[in-house]
From TrEMBL:
Sequence ranges assigned to domain Glyoxalase/fosfomycin resistance/dioxygenase in this UniProt record: 5-130
InterPro entries listed in its UniProt record: Glyas_Bleomycin-R_OHBP_Dase, Glyas_Fos-R_dOase_dom, PhnB-like
Source organism (scientific name): Streptomyces davaonensis (strain DSM 101723 / JCM 4913 / KCC S-0913 / 768)
A Pfam family recorded for this sequence: Glyoxalase
Domain of life of the source: Bacteria
Record-given protein name: Glyoxalase/fosfomycin resistance/dioxygenase domain-containing protein
Lineage: Bacteria, Bacillati, Actinomycetota, Actinomycetes, Kitasatosporales
Amino acid sequence: MASRLNPYLTFGGDARQAMEFYQQVFGGTLNLNSYGDFGQPDPAMADKIMHGMLETPNGFTLMGADNPEGAGKQGEHKYAISLSGDDDAELRGYWEQLSEGGQVSVPLDKQMWGDVFGMCTDRFGVPWMVNISEKTG
């Protein structure tokens, strides 16, 4: 799988509705995972979206999620830029450069869903997410 770059939107509780709306606008396949899908015990967050991804027939990819309670805002932005794929060396190289001189909010490490993931804000104030999945095949 080639690495991909796409926007990742942050919502305050209505990510499901927003992502379903974008699916109506652009078409495509929408995958939504709630916090409850990953064992969130708080009933207030269980149905909120931890990760959503819309992939359209035209090649658009849009991701989005609800910001967890108490997590604060994602900087001054309601978005992040997501880098994802299975090329570990390439994506770690991007991570090192993007996080250098910036602020790491989630260290690049193995996560509960099985991928290596990290979040940082670069030295220019732009929020980034890097997700490295295991190679398949």
